[in-house]
Each structure stands twice: as C-alpha cells, then as structure tokens.
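Contributing: when you submit paired examples, paste them exactly as shown. First protein:
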Amino acid sequence: INAEYGTHMRILLLLLFVKICLCQYKPNWESLDSRPNPAWYDEAKFGIFVHWGVYSVPAYAAVGKNEEVAQQLGEWYQYNMRQPNTDVWNWHLKNFGSDFTYADFASQFKPILWNPEQWADLFYNAGAKYVVLTSKHCDGFALWGSAQKPDWNAVDVGPNRDLVQDLLSAVKAKGIQPGLYYCNYEWFNPLLLGPNPHDYIDQILLPMYKDLITKYEPSVVWGDYAINFPSSWWNSTDLIAWIYNESPVKDMVVVDDRWGSETSGLHGGFWTVEYGHGDKTLTHKWEANRAIGWSYGYNRMENVSIYLTTKELIVMLVDTVSFNGNLLLDVGPTADGRIDNLLAERLLGIGSWLKINGEGIYSTRPWKVQTEGDSVWYTQDKSGNSTYAFISEWPSNSQLVLKSPVPSSQTQIYLLGYPGTLTYKYSTDGIAITFPELKPDDRQEVWGLKLTNLK
C-alpha cells in the first residue's frame, strides 16, 4: 500500500510540476509581456475613470492661470498647497490659513449624498464596460480599510465606510468590469523620504496591492506614478507575476504600463496615452485617458467652457477605437458623493449614441485604413464581413464620397439608426453614398455607416 501511495504521490507531484511550468509567467518583462490580454478588455472599448478622495473636499485647482500642469489638477492638491507662491498655495493660505493641513480635510470627506447604485446606473447608461476607481492616489489616502494606512483610510476617518467595496459591488451588479487604480508613489510618505525608502515597497506598496486584489478582485489593475525609479526598484515584475500566476483574477485581469521609469509604452498589458501624450499604435493594445474637463479630481473652478462637448467626446472615442485603443474617460465626484450634472449629461449623451452605433465600436477591430481626412474613421467587426465608417459632419447635399472602401456585387450600405439600405454608386473617385433626408432634430452628433461584403 505504501509503495502504491508513493507512486500516486510522485505522479501527482509530476503533474503539478508540469502545470506550473506550463502556466507560470516569470518575473521578467520578456515573460510577462508574452501574456495575451483577456478578450473582454479589447472588446470593451469604453470605460469610466473615477478620481475621488480627500482632494475632493477643497476641490480646487488653477484654471487658465498659465500654471504648470500639476497646478491644474485637483487630485494634486496636497502637493500643490505646499508649493510656495503658486495659485493653489495662495488660495489655501487665504481660505484656510497656514495651520490647516491637508490631513484636516479628511474629516470633511463625508459622502452623505452618495448612492453607489446610482453611479453604477449612470455608468451603465453611458455604455461603459468597465470602471476604474482610484483606490489610493499620491496623497496616500486609501478608500478602503487598509491595515497599512491606519487612521488614513475611508473606514477610519471621513466616510467611515469601505468605498471600494461599495462601488465595485454596484458596478459588478450591472455587469460592468471592476477596476482599481493605485498610485505607487506618495509625495510625503516618511518611508519614501527616509534613509531606507525601499522599506516602503515591503511595508506599504506590495501588501496593499495584494490586499486590494485578493479582497476586491478587480479586472483592471491600473498602477501609476512609478517614474522616480526603474521597475526593478519597485519590484514590479514580481508583483505582476503574482497577479498573473496566483491572484484570484489571474485569468481575467489586465494591467497597464506604468510600473517604472522605463516601462511606459514598452511593457505591460496595455499602454497608456494621457491627454494625447503617448503613441497610438496598431500593434499593441493601448488606452487613452483624460477627464471631461481638465482636472481628474473634481475642481470647482472649472465651468462648462472647460468641458469637452458630447460630440468632441464621441469623436475622441471613435478616433481611439479606430486606432486599436480603448477610451477611459474620467469623472471627478464631489466630496458629498455627487457627479456633477454637466458631467452626467456628457456621459448619458455618449450612452445614447452608443445604443445606436455601438455595433461599430464594441468588439471591433481596426480596419486596413483608419481615417480619411479629419472627419471619417473606420472600424470592422471580428468576422471582417462588415466595415463601419463614422463621419463627424453631415455631408453637404446629402452626398458622401468614401475613397477607401471598394464594394463587391453583394455590398450593402446602412445608416445606423435608420431603416433600410442607402443607394450608392462606385467609380474611380470612390463610393458615392446618398444620405436620406432627415430633420435637423433627427441628426446625431456623429454618424455611423455599415458597409457589408467589401472587397
């Protein structure tokens, strides 16, 4: 019996060893970069970024003051208020005085009007397929009851509730993929500023990441601000290997590219393009991120003139998707838990448009041509049988000529949201498409055409 038992154990151990060898990613970029992203992420195309924290209390940043970029970001308030003779520094002294610290704002972070289910409904109706919440920004304040942040987290002070749990549960209930942002660096953490800054990795960063991922199971892990040191200093490859191999989300998760001073646009599951800064590439998945206004965190100084219009946002989405990207669009809620009505209106406008035109966005692939001029963009479906052309301007005299598509004898053209097919003629100049006569009120911000069975 003992001999038979020993044989079985050796077989089981051998099978386990083979499984580990076949499945494990090694803690180096060559191995980690070989992992394909889960299919859901490329198919999603559109997500919502949420910047929310103690900085939502002062909710102030410079607008139109020709200040450096950081001064225009509300989520950078803790840093900005310490920069002498700047707009934010002067504003803080005038309104709160020199003895009022950033930590004093935490007790005023009271989301008494917050309903996470309402947020989830809004994001769902916006057409978003994933949501990424800032679990911790560079001020170090955690939106969950982190053991590494006693008295500096949302359970111990301010909201007195687990904001991460409540929001992620709400978005999951709507079928939206949950994601979490985590700022690797902290501006004024004493460990990082002390004689042994790497203690911060072992005592703060890695335990917090593993706690977040194990407890809340995000499908997106969005690391940020690791630019001060190379990824080897941050132990980034060890962390991502754990995420890919052992974490409870190892099969569903996707990570970004901000894991060290050398990694942006080179390593990670998807590459990030912020406010247009970065490369749009057809050969690697990427994600554009920006706010509807300028500041990611809520900034009371921004007004409607700062916000992009619904049309501008839809054009951004179409342009991004045509070049193989996703769009992660940010909203900054108020400290009491509201999303500004103007921001909500923009999101719902995108959602209304996607209800009609989503088949040309979700689960699509880049076509052989991405754009014609500055007002036409192309995508195609997975099968390659349908190509979509999006136009940002209604054609003059209801006639549009597309130069790139070549029709076959089976080609049909549809205007998304309009019944029936459109008539067209093909010549050496391209496809001349006749649009229907529509009332101005029936026209969309951006129009989608579906062209089937092209050559």
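Second protein:
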Amino acid sequence: MKPKIFSTKGRIRISHFPPDAKKKIFNLVDSDGNPIEGQQLGLLLYKGGTVCDDSFDNTAAEAICKYINSSFTAFLWTSEKTFDIQSNFDITLDDVQCGSAEWESCRYSEENDCGHSEDVFLSCKPGIYNQTDVLLIKLFRSYKHGVISIS
C-alpha cells in the first residue's frame, strides 16, 4: 500500500492506514506506522495523533484496549519507548482519566502540554479476565506491577 502524504499545520504527515482504519478513534501502530495485530507493543494513536501519558494509568489502558476490541484487555503500557515516526503526528489526547474499564467513563483533553517523549505505547491481548496483571513501565525505567479489576 502506498502511503498517503498530506500537510497538517505546516508539517508533512505520512499516513500508512487503509481508509477504513482512519475511521477508528484508536489505533496501535508499529515503528513504520503500520497497524499492528496481536500482542505487540505499539504507538497509541487517537484520531490520527499520539496520546500523552499525563494522568494515564492501568484503568485508561484497560478502557482503551476494550474500546479497540471488546474482547481485549490491557497487557502492557509505557511511555519509555520511541519511534522515529512520532514527530510526524500531532499529540491529540492528554490527561486521560477513567473511572472504569469503559471508554465512556473516561475524562480527557484534546488539548495538550506534552512532548513526544510522553507518548503512550500500548499492548492489548485477547481475553477478558476478572483480574489481569499489567506490567507498568514508567519514569526512570522503574518497574511497577499493577492489577486491573474489571467489573
């Protein structure tokens, strides 16, 4: 598939998404901007832009994975990764706070005060469980372990 090139706010953005993928609110992409499948860690996109990690937590990860596919659960999320393509995108989502694993319970801002070093990378996996262990990799490469409960 040949990438589509278009201009956004004086920047050139390259899109690798098939036309139907652009209709999705959330997408996970690899380092080349291609949609990923399966349990891979990908750059999280919201309406074609990246998602900032401000206020992002396990509940937000769970809500987004479930929104992407109702049979998905969050496996891993981090903001400690970088892809060369990140600067091709605007940051379109910030301050995501969710009250449950449902996207409808989430509050967020489409304005941001972030840099691409705060972009969220997410991995979802099939299966809904009452409790799911989620490995949370955060600042200074410290590892934290969280448990997500779905009610």
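If you have annotations for the second protein, write them as plain sentences, like these:
Confidence is low (pLDDT under 50) at residues 1-22, 129-151.
The first strand starts at residue 4 and ends at 8.
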